[in-house]
Amino acid sequence: xxxxSQTRFQDHFSDSAPDYALYRPRYPRSLTAWLATxxxxxxxxxxxxxxxxxxxxxxxxxxxxxxxxxxxxxxxxAADPHPRVAYVRATAERSALAPASxxxxxVAQALHWLDRDAFYAEARRVLAxxxxxxxxxxxxxxVSPSIDAPLHELYYEIxxxxxxxxxxxxxxxxxxxxxxxxxxxxxxxxxxxEWTLSELVGYVSTWSAVRQYRLRNGSDPVxxxxxALEQAWGGRGVRRRISWPLGVRVGxxxxxxxx
Length: 259
What we know:
The protein is of the alpha/beta class.
């Protein structure tokens, strides 16, 4: 990567890449299946800012090859291998992909980190005519009112001032972002997991604001809500349904603009 690309890359997760791979939720299979039906072909997809490859592995069920790129070598090292997924270290804005070579681009929980003008220009360059760009994000986790109460205390009160400003785009479900493509309205979809309390706590501990709190204060903010969480959960071995609101923006490249 060039020095310019490295300076633009906002790295909030490399030092917790193994935990990110272990505890981050998986995206709905119905989402990647639906996106595949929109693509003009199923030859090649690009999962941009792939992290540990969560979205890329879902795309591999539908495409001959998935190029999964990320600027973080640590995140890529923690990704699960797959015969149809090629992991590549590259920034979203400078992919090195051939012009008009991609049928579908996905950006999962990462569009708010990118230089969007540069990324959109790169997306138009590499998308085939009729190719599709899909970006999605998920908001604040929810379990039940008694469990949500301490989680919301952590998210909105204890971590107030520790979230990066880009987080506001996630809370708006990406509806506040410019998206210069011919948009397609997605069908309703649910993002859910069945987790133990330990898995939920592992996920919460990967939040960027939790990391910032620890760095600034030398203590763990999650510990402050653990007594309330444990009381509301009803036993560490109990599995509960976890859900997240899913915001999806999908658009198609409908004009031909040579690279």
